[in-house]
Amino acid sequence: AQSVSQHNHHVILSEAASLELGCNYSYGGTVNLFWYVQYPGQHLQLLLKYFSGDPLVKGIKGFEAEFIKSKFSFNLRKPSVQWSDTAEYFCAVNAWYGGSQGNLIFGKGTKLSVKP
Amino acid sequence: EPEVTQTPSHQVTQMGQEVILRCVPISNHLYFYWYRQILGQKVEFLVSFYNNEISEKSEIFDDQFSVERPDGSNFTLKIRSTKLEDSAMYFCASFGTDTQYFGPGTRLTVL
User: Fold this and answer.
1) Does residue A100 surpass a pLDDT of 70?
2) B31 close contact with A: CB closer than 8 A
3) B33 with A103: Cβ contact below 8 A
4) Range of B65's domain?
5) Would you place residue A91 in the very low, low, confident or very high pLDDT band (cuts 50, 70, 90)?
6) A43, B26, B48, B93: which could form a disulfide with B100 (CB 3.0–4.6 Å)?
7) For residue B88, is it within any domain?
8) What is the dihedral of CA A96, B59, B45, A97, to 10 degrees?
């Protein structure tokens, strides 16, 4: 069965620090990869996605992620975090089955707290 | 920008009661989903729906759950006889060209 692992449960950083959140997935076939963010009291919003092509993808708000196929990883990065990045971050994967849209498998999430 | 909407935002019910959670997906989307997130746990897939029928469901989605698209715009999740462990945030999502868009969620509290 597919699974997604997020290594960090809670990360605490000061403003301007660099961020890297780990994500590994287990699935041998073709996958689509996503990072979603959930700000306090709000719904899940898409940060970025990878389907194919350049393994370094850029998303909104200065976030980027790198897909490393050999490591089954899709880590999220941001060079300099802001207080407003305080949120919970979810890595997710889905697999395409002959053109139909598979469901998303989520990691447990990483809570990011940024100290002003 | 079009959004997925959900009502109510918070539902409190007694154990054993039926609840219906409502979602209005983005209008030109064809695939719809329900997920749930128990407090402190990960988001879990419940069911996907396409062409007026269930296309995939998880083992969580047992006979107590059902989904319907009654009128071409709403997409509902019904829980026939709620249990304490059904307390969770329920998210609806709809699929566009390549991405699932999530609604704000309904917090279900079963007492």
Assistant:
1) no
2) yes
3) yes
4) 5-97
5) very high
6) B93
7) yes
8) 10
